[in-house]
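seq as requested:
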Amino acid sequence: MCLLFFAYECHPRYRLILAANRDEYYCRPTAAAHFWEDHPWVFAGRDLEMLGTWMGITRSSRFAALTNFRDPSAQIIDPKSRGMLVNNFLCLDESPERYMLEVAKNRTLYNPFNLLVGDLSKLLYFNKQFSKALALKPGLYGLSNHFIDTPWPKVQKSKLALANYIENKTFIDPQGLFEILADTELAQDHELPQTGIGQEFERFLSSIYIKGAEYGTRSSTVLLIDRNNHVIFRENSYIPGQEQCVEVDCEFDLTN
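struct tokens:
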């Protein structure tokens, strides 16, 4: 996952309004979001190479999402799969706080990452460079491949678009969020961050939706959780060279 923007506990009807794009190499085998056969309470996509995932939710309200942190100089030898950080939280039954303590203790085993985990009572954020997780307060947030709310162009643009879209709306139509996620406009060169990958690649990665020859946005996801604990999870998975996308549309009620 390379971009998430979300409204957390700041809308009268919805606990969470979240939109996200997952960017990855097209050749990496992936399964679209579904209830997992081995853990049937988990609804998420799946990386078929390492069997982890980038974002998911359970029937009991456990939610987790991950982005990589862009720092070429901080890559380690033989790292554990970051996708398992999401996978393990969804499949286990530890509290978000206890789980993040374990993540903090073992963070050096992974390449740089950002992690969100939570349930109906809280949402926590952790970065590998931190010693402990942060509890997020109600508000609008954006997360790409740096710290949460780092003012990269795509983060600022998507947050502003989200704020404008949900303002004065009682009901949220996921299609409006998918339109934000489909924005392919590149940032201006003077706006680009410098993360050690060169200006050309920074420019290529600067749009909300990335479209390249071998790498780009693989899926777009909208997740809504209303105050009656009803979940709407919609996902569009994109196949290079094909006009149509694979659509997932799932709704269910959260249970204790």
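The longest helix spans residues 153-166.
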